[in-house]
Amino acid sequence: MTNAETTAAGLPRATAETPAPPAGSPTTHRWSPVLAVALATFTLVSSEMMPVGLLTPMSHSLGVTDGATGLSLTITGLIAAALSPFAPALVGPRDRRSVLVAFMLLLGLANAVTALAPNFAVLAVGRVLLGAAMGIVWGLVASLGPRLADGPRLALAMTLIFSGVSIASVLGVPLGTYLAALLDWRAAFWALALLGAASAAVLAATLPPLPAHRRARLDGLAGALRHRGIATGAAITAFVVLGHFAGYTYVRPVLEADAGLSSGTIATCLLVYGLAGVAGNFTLGPMSGRRPKTAVTLALSGVTLATALLGSATGGLVTVLLVLVLWGVSYGGVSVSTQTWFRLADPARVEASAALWAGVFNASIALGSLAGGLVVDRAGNHAVLLTAAALAGAGLLLTVLSRPDRPADRA
């Protein structure tokens, strides 16, 4: 644990992970490594979520149902979830910079395989490769903020790193949707393949050496889970991400069938949603460093309300946009606020708890999209939105009844 983490968390330096500030500590601050990691998170999330904007054309091209195509998110999420908690232990003492570069190149390859897929089986292979890349990258990236920025800059650095998640909704998915409308859905994945290679190059050029603090052990995960604040944060994260992806994965069919919107208008709606997500990230992100419970409560309240309202708001474009703005602002703050909850709950295990957070997040993406697919194929669009609201609402209730294990975080 670095001096930066001690300052940000307000606790004495812990020794469970790091006996001393390692190479790569933010003694001389530069923003370029932080922005490079933000580009990587943007590329990860754009690659993972691209099927949301292309669900209908992909389904028609591959000859499968919308629910089956939604499984492409489930496949990726399950692989990422299986790997990310163990990422620090799997990569061992290797320099984190080299590992990140290698797996961003694998991400590029995965998108190329997806672009070439003649059927769902080959598509699944591409998504398995993508899940492997995501699992390792997310398992390491989530803990990099304190190694790239010192105390006064840490909250902004964390917000910037996780801004890649919301900006992917602003630029990645909508631009992929537009590109598919102009050319073909495969063109969107070719673009992501090139972006993966470019992101790897930027990481190689800008990141400082990031040697392991100490060789990670698998029992570090068990120790993190035994911590009450971490266990509660894991449950909260699981509920809201399950709910979000149960609904959001199938938002295009909702907007097409229920609201009667064209593909171009849907792309615009997703763009508005994404812009709102960026606003939420930069509003709730800094707040989460000071008042994590408040930030998480606001984020989950908005997701719960938006998913509950969208089914009855499809009578007009204005009402659809209003609900999507609420959804975007709220979900835009989920990543940084829940990860901050983990970090502040147990500063002694920053890398282990961050990897655990990434595993929970990705498992919830997989299970949420799977649950949504089962519901939408059997009970329809309104049922899947109500399911999403119920799951997010459970997370909201748990948040209200809980807090990270520090008195200062009760707000």
- The amount of helix comes to over 70%
Number of spatially distinct domains? 1
Please tally the helical runs, counting DSSP H or I stretches of 4 or more residues: 19
Q: Give the total of beta strands.
A: 0
* CATH level-4 homologous superfamily: MFS general substrate transporter like domains
Radius of gyration: 20 Å
Approximate shape:
globular
Layout of strands and helices, then pairs:
Blueprint lengths: L2 H7 L22 H22 L1 H8 L3 H18 L3 H5 L4 H21 L3 H22 L3 H4 L2 H32 L2 H22 L12 H8 L1 H21 L2 H8 L4 H28 L1 H19 L6 H16 L1 H12 L4 H30 L1 H20 L11
Helix pairs in contact: 1-9, 2-4, 2-7, 2-9, 2-10, 3-4, 4-7, 4-18, 6-7, 6-10, 7-18, 9-10, 9-14, 11-18, 12-15, 12-17, 12-18, 12-19, 14-15, 14-16, 14-17, 15-16, 15-17, 15-19, 17-18, 18-19
Key features?
411 residues, mainly alpha, Growth Hormone, Chain: A, 79% helix, 0% strand, globular, disordered N terminus, disordered C terminus
Summarize the structure.
With 411 residues, the protein is mainly alpha-helical. 79% of the residues lie in helices and 0% in strands.
Can you give a write-up of this model?
This protein is mainly alpha-helical. It has a single domain (30-409), classed as MFS general substrate transporter like domains (Growth Hormone, Chain: A, Up-down Bundle). 79% of the residues lie in helices and 0% in strands. α4 packs antiparallel against α18. It is globular, with a radius of gyration of 20 Å.
